[in-house]
Amino acid sequence: MTSGVIEIEGLRKTFHSLRRGRRVAVDGFDLLVEAGQVHGFLGPNGSGKTTTLRALLGLVRADDGRMRVLGANAPEQLPQVAGRVGAIVESPQFYGNFTGYRTLRLLALAGGVPVARVDEVLEQVGLADRGDERVKGYSLGMKQRLAVASALLKRPELLILDEPANGLDPAGIREMRDLVRALAANGVTVLLSSHILAEIQLICDHVTIISQGRRVAAGPVAEVLAGFDHNEHLVRADDLARAEELLLAAGLTVTGHPDHLVVSGVPDPTAVSRTLGEQGVWVRELTPLRPDLESVFLELTGTPAHPGVPRQVDGSAPPGDPAGDQEIDLGMRGVDA
């Protein structure tokens, strides 16, 4: 295995359901996160993303594979590095009658962290003026900030965040982005899972995409996107029908739309403007269509770009949503997950 802050090789995990029987959640998954990266971890609901994080942190027992965190074998040696890791996985729960400050103070005392650190993390996540309020009065976004604050208490070298922008408004999302960037600038390695793909593209330098329990893409964000660049250009012209006819006659691949054309496989856009201009058809717009993380995600997974967890008409959970089934992890009997 290549040396990294997080190393996962061949991870497999199967659950057994009372209603659906055997379900493979993770099927031979690999992940490498190197020191100093802000690494995006993407996948639709039911893809195995959260199961992977839970297995990495020892919250469920993997069936097969190898994992290391900060050089320690997981889960056996996790206690040796736990003080250097901060993590939020799924939606954290807090005692509603405690204030935000008291919640973090108890966590600090339990973890051997100086209590003075509580005020620092409340300031970091934008809750400095709300720390004396009871958690039950917090909005979803405020609870998410409190969860991030709890993960920062130990000044972690590695920060694992599962949907940290959940419930945040646009200003809060930007603040979370700035916080992650600031942490990375100070040497913290961040593994970030999110459904807000535009944010991942803005924040992360590397990305891994999982679909149906398997890795389908990994690498620097720019390289992953470049692999899906089809040299497409949007074209608008004064005579769109004539423009389409001329471009097709020139051997170019053209897709017609009501108010524009998309020309594919053209690395040099001057071929488009020259072909049309020579025949007296004037180009009004010629714009390169570069792939973004959302379009790549859609192409690789075939799922909605912001896939939430939709409910069915009858209110039940959709296929693949553990909330709709009683999942049994046969490997974790007697283990407090």
UniProtKB/TrEMBL annotation:
<dbReference type="GO" id="GO:0016887">
    <property type="term" value="F:ATP hydrolysis activity"/>
</dbReference>
<dbReference type="InterPro" id="IPR017871">
    <property type="entry name" value="ABC_transporter-like_CS"/>
</dbReference>
<keyword id="KW-0067">ATP-binding</keyword>
<dbReference type="InterPro" id="IPR003593">
    <property type="entry name" value="AAA+_ATPase"/>
</dbReference>
<dbReference type="GO" id="GO:0005524">
    <property type="term" value="F:ATP binding"/>
</dbReference>
<protein>
    <submittedName>
        <fullName>ABC transporter ATP-binding protein</fullName>
    </submittedName>
</protein>
<comment type="similarity">
    <text>Belongs to the ABC transporter superfamily.</text>
</comment>
<keyword id="KW-0547">Nucleotide-binding</keyword>
<dbReference type="InterPro" id="IPR027417">
    <property type="entry name" value="P-loop_NTPase"/>
</dbReference>
<feature type="domain" description="ABC transporter">
    <location>
        <begin position="6"/>
        <end position="237"/>
    </location>
</feature>
<keyword id="KW-0813">Transport</keyword>
<dbReference type="InterPro" id="IPR003439">
    <property type="entry name" value="ABC_transporter-like_ATP-bd"/>
</dbReference>
<feature type="region of interest" description="Disordered">
    <location>
        <begin position="303"/>
        <end position="337"/>
    </location>
</feature>
<dbReference type="Pfam" id="PF00005">
    <property type="entry name" value="ABC_tran"/>
</dbReference>
